[in-house]
């Protein structure tokens, strides 16, 4: 798992279409990473993953710019479908 600062450096270098962020990441939370990611590259879509199944946490992440919030452990086929959908929405 990358730290938030490492993820931001990679996003700057590679400009991915979609990133997956865990709510709890070393040194910088997924929320803090998201807050810095969106102004850096607004077109990159972000999917937040967390074991916290709390509506207020999910709503907060979505208000900060996450494109989706998924509780862990994710169903991999559903996650693949979600990533594809978020990526396709980026193109429109």
Explain this structure:
The chain has 92 residues and is an alpha/beta fold. The protein has one domain (4-87): Response regulator (Rossmann fold, 3-Layer(aba) Sandwich). 51% of the residues lie in helices and 16% in strands. The chain contains four helices and three strands. A three-stranded parallel beta sheet has the order 1-2-3. The protein starts with a helix and ends with a helix. The model has no long low-confidence stretch (mean pLDDT 88).
User: Quick one: how many beta strands?
Assistant: 3
CATH architecture term:
3-Layer(aba) Sandwich
Assign the CATH class: Alpha Beta
Report strand order across the widest sheet. 1-2-3
The major pleated sheet works out as: 3 strands, parallel
Structural class assignment: alpha/beta
Radius of gyration: 12 Å
The percentage helix is: 40-55%
The number of domains is: 1
Which spans have pLDDT < 50 for at least 5 consecutive residues? none
CATH topology: Rossmann fold
